[in-house]
Fold this protein.
Amino acid sequence: MISARRFPVFLAVGTAVLLQTVSGCGSRISEADGMVTYQGRPVVCGAVIFVGPDGMTKVANIDENTGRYYIEGVGAGTVGVAVFSTDPAFPRDTDNPSNPQDPQKKNWNQPNVDRSSWRPLPSKYEMVHTSGLTVQLIPGLNCDVNIELQ
């Protein structure tokens, strides 16, 4: 039972906790943007994969013109990263860009990339457990989280 003297304190603390929860303050969720480069040149076709400390996996396409990505819903902390780059000469499934399948599927499109600007990446970067790549994310927006592949 809460005494009458403690009720205002209880009410104030409860309200503060509720406001933090509703407003997202205290959230451990991150979003990030940045550029993906391989040997100093932008990766022009592909996607990044982030695996948060909670084990949740998020995937974001790499912009075909700039080599930039934007990803959201990633747990804050040390995040494992993988990058793959598909050959732009072949159509890709826009719902699952790493899955080459029948180009007659409705979700397939031809990337708008000059193939001469595309370079295949070493296969080690395609899996989080072999890439050796990690980033440190704080809750909220993380700008210019660049991924530089050698």
